[in-house]
Amino acid sequence: MEEYPRYLTPDSETFDPVELAERTRKIVCRGDERKYTRFYATGVYGGIATGYTCGCCLRCVFCWVDRSRDFPEKLGSFYSPREAFERLSEAARSYGTRKLRISGAEPTLCKDHLIGLLDRVEDSEFGPFILETNGIPFGVDEDYVEKISEFDKPHVRVSLKAGTPEAFSRKTGAKPQFFEIPFKAIRNLLKHGVSFHVAGMMDDPRIVTSRERSELARRLKEIHPKLLRYFEGEVVDPYESTIKRLKASGFSLSWPLKESYPPLWKEYE
C-alpha cells in the first residue's frame, strides 16, 4: 500500500481523494464513533460551539488545521454521537450561543457518526448546525446528501479549493480528474434542498489567478446563478500550520496581504 499522504512537497505523488477518504475513515471512524481533538466555542459565525475533527481526504497547502489532519492516527479521541453532542452543548451553554458545528479537517468523513449527531441536534434547543466540507464525500455519495436533507437544522458550507483541475491538483495534492467531485456535491445539495452556500480560496491574488477566478465563476453560474451572489471568498491567513504547509509545498507568499480581489459576484455576476 502507498504511504499515507502527509504534507505536500514539490515531489509528492498525486493521489485519489476518494481512496484517501476511505483510508482515513479506517483511522478516524469506529462504528458510530468519530475522532475529535477538542470541543470549544469561538467567535466566528457570531459565536458557535465547535467540535474539532481529525483526518481529511485533501492536503491543501493553505490549510489552517493542526497536525491532526496529517497524523490522524496519533491525535484525537473517539466520541459517540451522544458524547459529541454533550460536549458541544456544554461549550455552547458556556459561551451563550445556540449555534453548533463540526470543523477542523473533513467533518463529513464519518457518516454514521454525523447522522447520529444530527439526530440529537434536531430534537434539541440548539441550531443551526454548520457543517463544513470540502465536498468530496457529498459528491460521491448522493444518498448521504439525501439523509442530510431529512434534517432541518444543518447548513452546509462547501469549501472549493481551486477554479481549474490543474490548480486543484497543485493546491490539494489530488489528481486533477477529481476536481469535478465538489461541484457534484453542490448539485446534490441543490437537488435535495439542503441549505448551503459555497466558499473558496478565491480572493487572494498571491495564490489564485484572475483566470482561475473566472473559470470558477463560470462553473458556479452554470449550476445556479445564486451561487455566485452568496459565494464566500477567502484569503490565506498566516496560521503557523498554514505557513509550514506553504513552505513545504514550495509556495512563497509575502505577508501581510496588501490587496485582495473584489467579491466574485461583483466581477462575474
From TrEMBL:
<dbReference type="GO" id="GO:0046872">
    <property type="term" value="F:metal ion binding"/>
</dbReference>
<keyword id="KW-0949">S-adenosyl-L-methionine</keyword>
<protein>
    <recommendedName>
        <fullName>Radical SAM core domain-containing protein</fullName>
    </recommendedName>
</protein>
<comment type="similarity">
    <text>Belongs to the radical SAM superfamily. NifB family.</text>
</comment>
<dbReference type="Pfam" id="PF04055">
    <property type="entry name" value="Radical_SAM"/>
</dbReference>
<keyword id="KW-0535">Nitrogen fixation</keyword>
<keyword id="KW-0479">Metal-binding</keyword>
<keyword id="KW-0456">Lyase</keyword>
<dbReference type="InterPro" id="IPR007197">
    <property type="entry name" value="rSAM"/>
</dbReference>
<keyword id="KW-0411">Iron-sulfur</keyword>
<feature type="domain" description="Radical SAM core">
    <location>
        <begin position="38"/>
        <end position="269"/>
    </location>
</feature>
<dbReference type="GO" id="GO:0016829">
    <property type="term" value="F:lyase activity"/>
</dbReference>
<keyword id="KW-0004">4Fe-4S</keyword>
<comment type="pathway">
    <text>Cofactor biosynthesis; Fe-Mo cofactor biosynthesis.</text>
</comment>
<dbReference type="InterPro" id="IPR058240">
    <property type="entry name" value="rSAM_sf"/>
</dbReference>
<dbReference type="GO" id="GO:0051539">
    <property type="term" value="F:4 iron, 4 sulfur cluster binding"/>
</dbReference>
<dbReference type="InterPro" id="IPR013785">
    <property type="entry name" value="Aldolase_TIM"/>
</dbReference>
<keyword id="KW-0408">Iron</keyword>
